[in-house]
Model the fold of this input.
Amino acid sequence: MVTLRSGRLDEAESIVGVWREAEAEPTTTDDPERVRQLMAADADAVIVAEEGGRLVGTVIAAWDNWRGGIYRLAVVPDHRRRGLGHRLVDEAVSRLRAAGAARLSAIVVDDDEGAMAFWTALGWYRQPARARFVKNL
Done:
């Protein structure tokens, strides 16, 4: 049985491991230290899915007191197509709503057809006429 809960600081390496196993598009912030930093600032921001002591999914539910952001939704390949991604998103939405969020956004890889279809199927829509700008420090 897969359970959802907040990630723990000592699981930072395993969380990054889920992202790698799930082949999530890598970013400059995909390291255990930054995961620990996030969890130290907000103990409930990282949601993990666990089965039999193994992490099999993650999502980040970030609240900046303005909007809620959903990042790093990842499910390991042998646990896909079972509704786990949907459960993780629902938990993230629930936590962000409880924090006071009135609007949420999710960052999705533009050319990942499966990811685009997933978010669309959940009732999310792609915001037109917007571009995301980033700068790595």
